[in-house]
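Support reply, case 0932

Customer input (verbatim):
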Amino acid sequence: MEGTTMELQLGGKKVLVTGSSKGIGAGIAHKFALEGAIVIVHGRNRAQADEVAHAIVTRGGRAHVVLGDLTDDSAVERMLNEASQHAGAIDILVNNAGGSGSVKEEWSTTKPATWAATYDRNVLAALRVTTRVLPGMRQAGWGRVINISSLAATMPPAGGPDYAAGKAAINAMTVSLAKAVAAEGITVNAISPGTIHSDTLDRKFREVAVQHGLDADAPWDTIERTVLPLFAQVPVGRVGQVDDIANVAAFLASPVAGYITGSNLRVDGGLSPGL
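Our regenerated output:
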């Protein structure tokens, strides 16, 4: 992934980005590496995680890989022990892993078990990792925790209520922890991405474009210009890029953002109508 440094004083900082073997997490990992941080790439798929780490190292960065299921306490413990062996105490934690299930449930079909699984995958996964890295941050008198939330937390749609509720819990957890550790040199913030370009979004947009008479292989800007207004009214007029999220994460993690804590930064091109 290409990019330019922002000189955010992150050189040598040890960063764990959960769920960074692909997508937004991978973009965040690349950005921190570009800023000189030592990155711990985490995932559940060895080949994907190795690919991200290899790309970072090829470009002159420093990266290590750890694997683990964040819904399993013992797996989290092993994963963090391995991360510590690679890089030492974690300075910056980005809780990116999570997401919705493979089937998006509606209110007519949703089940308590789905909500429990979604909560575990998003909220409890972040909790398991955070509570284990906090002691090291407290001892150092410096640390950053960044939770990747979603606009669904504050603009919940009719479908997928379990995911919206889980991300709302992430926001509440962010504020509570921020208050608890603010005097110890640790900041805690959330980022709520809007409509972000991904492989899944790209395929969906192209499917809709075909229904409106466009070629499925048309240039992305043509697809975007036609299809985006059908999905969301984004004032800046474009879909967000992974770098848009990664740049904000790097800024929040940096010493220059030391007076920002307990915040939820919406990176949505102005989509959210609230203050």
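We compared this against your earlier run and they match. Two observations from our side: The CA atoms of residues 39 and 63 lie 5 Å apart. The mean pLDDT is 95. Please reopen the case if you see a mismatch on your end.
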